Amino acid sequence: MTGDISLQPAAGDAPHIVLEARNVVKTYGHVTALDGVDFELRDGEILAIVGDNGAGKSTLIKTLTGAVHPTSGEILLDGRPIQFKGPLGARHAGIETVYQDLAVAPALDIASNLFLGRELRCPGVLGSIFRRLDKRRMRDEAQRAMNELKFRLPSISNAVEALSGGQRQGVAVARAALFARKLVIMDEPTAALGVRETGQVLELIRSIRDRGLPVVLISHNMPNVFEIADRIHIMRLGRRAAVVTPKSHSMNDVVAIMTGAATA
Amino acid sequence: MNAASASPSPTSSSSSPSLKARILGTPSAGPLLVLIVFCVIFAFTNPRFLATHNISIILQQTVIIGTLAIGQTLIILTAGIDLAVGAICVLGTIVAGKLVNLGYDPVLSMGFAILLCTLSGLAAGGLVAGLRLPPFIVTLGILGILTAALRLISEGGAFPVRDPFLAWTGTTLKTGGFVLTYGILIMAGLYVFVWYLLNETKWGRHLYAIGNNPEAARLVGIPVRRHLVSVYLLAGLIYGIAAWLALGRIPNADPNALQTANLDSITAVVIGGTSLFGGRGGLIGTLVGALIVGVLRNGLTLAGIDPLWQDLITGILVIVAVALDQMSRRKNR
Question: Which end of chain B has fewer surrounding CB within 10 Å, N or C?
Fold first, then answer.
């Protein structure tokens, strides 16, 4: 709710930094994937990460989600140093990740997919001894979350395979938004989608930010990035080449920085 | 090229599913219809078909395959397949029979036999989940090992097992002119229990998710390997109980018995609408599938038709069921 206000930090007022990486290095044998990269995600923003293939985008994201351990450097969550024990560790810390390849179970319904891995049990004996799922509560809460995100779906009890690609990805994005306490990371969430479906998902990402969750968006699609990002983190040769905003720089500027033809 | 032409269809039809779509979407609706059609045909051609004692006979004949098919359903739902179903069940009958004939306590003997069956399931699950071997190969290997070992133990031949406890599952009880056996009740209880697990618990949800999209299941934090092991373990336990039911039906331990149980249980599962690709289907369909096979056998026998027709019709049903599954999967791409 306060997301809109905190987007444009007043001058001199230092914004709260949710996730930060300082001088992170990752080497694979002789190959240096990350060469002392810095990263900062502010509260209530959509931060896009762009970069050429091999610039270190994926490795950076993997270190931020706990899939890869950095060789050196430190990662701070809410200002406190943190070491993730695998992707589950990052999730327990409140970081949710959305992947490009539609990570849903197609034959299960929307509510089941939203709560997959975090199912709710019935209260009382039914839940504690008979381990019974509280399907109605999961359906109601799924419906409420979808309404809150203004994401329109045919029916919450539909199987996910009956949905369009954009709606499926919407389910995966909504799942992340529903359970993330700190931030959501999206790795090319629209890469597999058409133009109209991409629009739906971008809209959803915006409403997640407007609810107050910061979003890290990795994307190859420059127009998409310029459409929704508040700031753009540009990777080049395993380092952060620059952080710019869509207002201060054009797409050509960003591409020039990505390729090394210009500096910020 | 297919994707381009198929992609607009889901968006246009996504508004709200019609009644027809909903019925077609219920996986056990088709098989149930087939079962009813067969029952009607047999009832018209032979009035004895619907006699209570004949229905009781059908149920008794369905008990073993029907129970084994529960475990097979669980494994097929994980996108696996179990070719050691019959062999593990026979392991149970031989071990229990041998121990009882040696003079051991029948309850302990049966318990030990069921434990061995459960451990066989555990071994299969460990190999599938731990070493990531294909279930087809793992269970084929266990089938070979068990078949040979059981023939060695029993010195090649069948032997009678006469013990009231082991035969108890075949004991009949009459309820209002309807003859049931305890074995039928045990099978029914297992269906209810496993149905509950599949549909009302986290364990079942996760099993469907793993069969559907193992990578997505892993990414949401489901311990996929441990879950797979638990599925094979439960299946082994069910095969062990089926061994007790088998001894109740025929008081004989035969290393060469149940050789068609693998294919029969897979047939019941597939006719029941469960997808061989995993993640789709359910236990009600399997029960209906097992009953279809039982009704077909019984009805054709009553009609005096050559038993070879049973296999022929069953074969056609399997192909039709898998073809329907494939078509619905392609449509949903």
Answer: N
> In CATH terms, are A15-93+230-264 and A100-183+192-213 the same topology?
yes
Q: What is the Cα–Cα distance from B70 to B73, expressed in whole angstroms?
A: 5
Contact B201 A164 (CB under 8 A): no
Asked if B212 lies within 8 A of A155 by C-beta distance, the reply is no
Judged by CB atoms closer than 8 Å, whether chains meet at B203 and A131 is answered as yes
Q: In this predicted structure, what is the pLDDT of residue A132?
A: 92
Which residue from B minimizes the CA distance to A114? B220
Residue of chain B whose Cα is closest to the Cα of A162: B10
Q: Which residue of A has its CA nearest to B204?
A: A133
Across the interface, whether the CB atoms of A116 and B16 are under 8 A apart is answered no
- The answer to whether the Cβ–Cβ distance between B14 and A167 falls below 8 Å is yes
Go through B42-68 and write b for each residue having 16 or more CB atoms within 10 A of its CB, e for each that does not. Answer: beeebeebeeeebbbebbbbbbbbbbb
- The domain spans of chain A are 15-93+230-264, 100-183+192-213
Mean of the pLDDT values across residues A74-103?
A: 86
pLDDT of the residue at B210 = 96
The enclosing H or E element of B181 equals strand B178-181
Interface contact A116-B17, CB threshold 8 A: no
Measure the CA–CA gap between A216 and A225, rounded to whole angstroms. Answer: 11
A162 vs B14, B215, B222: nearest CB: B14
CB pairs under 8 A between A and B: 85
How would CATH label the architecture of A100-183+192-213? 3-Layer(aba) Sandwich (3.40)
Q: What is the pLDDT of residues B271-305, one digit of tens each?
A: 999 999 999 999 999 999 999 999 988 998 888 88
Q: Inform me whether the pLDDT recorded for A239 exceeds 50.
A: yes
Scanning the structure block, which residue is given the tokens 């952080």?
A243
Cα torsion A103, A108, A109, A114 to 10°: value is -40
The interface pTM score, or ipTM, of the predicted complex is 0.81
Residue among B93, B137, B74 nearest B255 (CA): B93
B132/chain A closest Cα distance in angstroms: 21
Q: Which residues in B have their CB inside 8 Å of a CB on A?
A: 7, 10-11, 13-17, 25, 200-203, 205-206, 208-209, 212-213, 215-217, 219-222, 279-280, 332
Confidence of residue B22 (pLDDT cuts 50, 70, 90): low
**Tens digits of residue pLDDT in A25-55:** 999 999 999 999 999 999 999 999 999 988 9
Q: Please provide the average confidence, as pLDDT, over all residues in chain A.
A: 88
Starting at the edge strand found earlier in the chain, the sheet holding A46-51 runs A95-98, A183-187, A215-218, A46-51, A231-236, A239-244
Question: Which residues of chain A lie closer than 8 angstroms to B219, CB-CB?
Answer: 87, 97, 99, 103
Residue type for position A116: L
In this complex, do B7 and A165 lie within 8 Å of one another by their Cβ atoms?
Answer: yes
Q: Per DSSP, which regions of chain A are E strands?
A: 17-28, 31-42, 46-51, 72-77, 80-81, 95-98, 183-187, 215-218, 231-236, 239-244
Residue B10 pLDDT level (bands cut at 50, 70, 90) = very low
CATH of domain A15-93+230-264: 3.40.50.300
In this complex, do A104 and B213 lie within 8 Å of one another by their Cβ atoms?
Answer: yes
Residue with tokens 């994937």: A33
In this predicted structure, what is the pLDDT of residue B23? 57
